[in-house]
Amino acid sequence: MQSSIQNTDKKIKETLLTPRFYTTDFNEMANLDISLNTEEFEALLKEFRADYNKKHFIRDEEFNKSWNTIENKTKILFIEFLERSCTAEFSGFLLYKELSRRLEKSNPVLAECFLLMSRDEARHAGFLNKAIGDFNISLDLGFLTKSRKYTFFSPKFIFYATYLSEKIGYWRYITIYRHLEKYPEHRVYPIFKFFENWCQDENRHGDFFAALLKSQPQFLNNTQSKLWCRFFLISVFATMYLNDFQRSDFYRSIGLDARQYDMQVIRKTNESASRIFPIALDIDKPEFFKYLDLSASLNKLLIEIDKSNNALIIKSIRKIYIYSQIGINITKLFFIKPIDSSYINKTIK
């Protein structure tokens, strides 16, 4: 992807770990029958209309100072964190906004829910983009809309993936917030103070997609759906783990160990997902994090290969080998026998 960062010649490289923009089968979405869960959707719509965070994302005087005092390496890592977060939130805004437009006539309840979720995502993306502006650069969101490639997911895959991304987003935000509440000396920038209320938006969005899944029992109650749930759990967890491993310096700058942070977020998200998904991952099995650690280390080697002065053909051969090894480790994760969700829910009550 061509860089969308203004006032800099930095380029953002598109990889499997880059936040993606999605599209789906809008006709299939328009024909969804949600009558099995009508009451929950009406309750969720009431929550969205209440707009609890309407006055939350307002910058206070703490933002009004120069941030050039932040150590340069930390600043670069922090800007990257803001950029990735802003791109992910803006991706959600675009998808939800388009869904609200396409469903307006066929399913007004879903359409309004998507519209109000797009409001939340736009608010998050705008707040993050203003934060990026504090470092004298800006993310051109209009350019992103036109330039990014859109990945097609069928509606059921959108439900699985977005449910998990919203729930994992909740646990990521609240874990950082609680850590910095305990150790405020590591709060390098005031945006972290907003994470407690912010993550409640993520949680409500996750609840909405949980309601969608419950309204379509065929996405949850058969062997095929168990395999897809397992696939998306592993995909979301592995993507986060590999991303955070290569950005461990950022987490260190706010007083967190990236590995311990991810382990906690994975544990909590796995528990949350078990309330909807028919299975949960067996993350207590020693091999689980062993395979993630091996994959993360291999992924970091890919970055080192890109920086090396080796010939292109040598780089390509080494990369193919490393990608194959990462693929083998992720496949091994998939074949770790999952746990029935009913068992998980009994143990966490």
From TrEMBL:
Family label: Belongs to the AcsF family.
Record pathway: Porphyrin-containing compound metabolism; chlorophyll biosynthesis (light-independent)
GO cellular component, one term: chloroplast
A Gene Ontology molecular function term of the record: iron ion binding
Every Rubrerythrin diiron-binding domain range: 80-213
Main function: Catalyzes the formation of the isocyclic ring in chlorophyll biosynthesis. Mediates the cyclase reaction, which results in the formation of divinylprotochlorophyllide (Pchlide) characteristic of all chlorophylls from magnesium-protoporphyrin IX 13-monomethyl ester (MgPMME).
Signal peptide (residue range): none
GO biological process: light-independent chlorophyll biosynthetic process; photosynthesis
NCBIfam families: AcsF, PRK13654.1
Subcellular location: Plastid, Chloroplast
Organism annotation: Thaumatella adunca
Taxon lineage: Eukaryota, Rhodophyta, Florideophyceae, Rhodymeniophycidae, Ceramiales
This protein's name: Magnesium-protoporphyrin IX monomethyl ester [oxidative] cyclase
